[in-house]
Amino acid sequence: MPRFVLLRAGMRALLTSVILTALFASGVVAGMCFYPQVFTTTADSAPDDHDPHDHPADDMHEDAHEDHDHEDEDHVALTEQAFENLGLRLGSPTTGDYWKSVLVPGKVVEIPGRSDLAVSTPVAGVIESVHVIPGQNIPMQSPLFTIRLTDEALLAAQARYLETLTQQEVAQQEISRLSPLIQSGGVSGTKSRELEYEVKQLVARQATILQELRGRGMPENQIEQLRRDRILASTSSVGVPKFVREQSAGDLSGGYSVETLLVHPGKAVSRGDSLCTVAYHQRLYIEGTAFEVDLPTLERIAKKGWKITAETAHEEHDHYGLTSMQLKLLRVDNHVDEVTQTVRFFVELPNEIAQTSTEDGRQFDHWRFRPGQRLHLRLPVEQWTDQITLPTDAVVVDGPNVFVFAEHNHEEEAAARLTKETTATESPSQEHEEDHDVFIEFEPVPVRLLHRDDKTVVIANDGQLHDGERVALNNAYKLYLAMKMQAGGGGGHHHHHDH
Q1: 315: number of CA atoms within 13 Å, CB side?
Q2: What SS3 class is residue 68?
Q3: What are the residues whose beta carbons fall under 8 Å from the beta carbon of 424, sequence distance 6 or more?
Q4: Where is the composition biased (Basic and acidic residues) (predicted)?
Q5: From residue 491, how far is each of 67, 140, 323, 480 by CA, in Å?
Q6: Rg of the chain's alpha carbons, rounded to an integer?
Q7: What is the C-alpha separation between 472 and 83, in angstroms, rounded?
């Protein structure tokens, strides 16, 4: 009996606890559901003791703050130091025509049979003197080499020539002596006719010997000296070849220079041996290398007479720039390389002297273009007309979005905001005072990209960019990163410097 009483008392206590817990939970749920409605109604029904116009400055402050935050997301502000550190260049977009092109490599080469020549000895002998050095301009009127003759046939021909000259003089003297006697009838005219016939034979023999002397390489000035002095020539001077003199008529240097010396004093040479090589670099070729798929482009260039753009690097003010030249296609090879599947084409390149120096009376020309020099060739493919062109570094591509950074002008915006704030309150907001350290601001302008190569982008002229509007011509991606940082709280308008 006592055990049953205890069990019933425990059940009663447990049931009471469960009921109390359920009631408490119901109250909590009811409070959570009806608390917002009750207090909202209370707040709405409470008497409004404040004039809704008592805080115009606060409302303006909040609106300005929201506008300012939104502005930070669409603009990038730079201090003067940041602007200089980025090295930004500002300029207006250029509207005009632009050629879409294919970039291929090229190199400067010599013109076969024209640029690389040789000077050979016309006689056999021993080199006695060398009057030029490598790199020197060829003196047109001065000898290049002096050779001591060892050609026996040439020496014998000289001797025969002098002998005929002597015989001719003797016959002429005898004719002169007999002329008065023949006229007086003391001597028969047969003797005079025999002497005249002998003179004609000597003259004919002299002409033959002269041809032999010229054929063996004896120059005209030495032949004339032999006739005048009656002394056998023991040395011979080798000068500029005749075809070089004719080609460079009127030009002291003619664009020719000594490339390589092949002999030295004391060296024995045979007739026809090369003494030096001569370079002619006043006109050169550019050898371009294109793929087989570019052949239709080359054929179209040749047919329509389009110019090929050659780009070369040059140093200017401690930095390198590019110089462009418009050149005409000369020819395209008629075969494709089996290994590389490339085809060669050639463009004629006019050269110019970049600098001239003189040392010990010798002149040295330094040409702008040199064989072996590398450059780039742009093959025209398609022309874009009346579109905007900018440097590649002026455009940012972010997925499907393409934009440039234009200078943001706050003059009108600041004037409107100042008028609004003055009307709303007499005390200006200190939180949004003018940013005294902001030097310049940029805003991204979305554009439509038509074409892009390694140095230029073509943008549709659809009114997004206006004439006279200044844009950043370089480091646009760095401005893009700065804008992202400022929008994320890493930058933006600062009202003080941290030192």
Answers
A1: 3
A2: helix
A3: 56, 57, 59, 60
A4: 47-74
A5: 17, 72, 40, 13
A6: 49
A7: 11
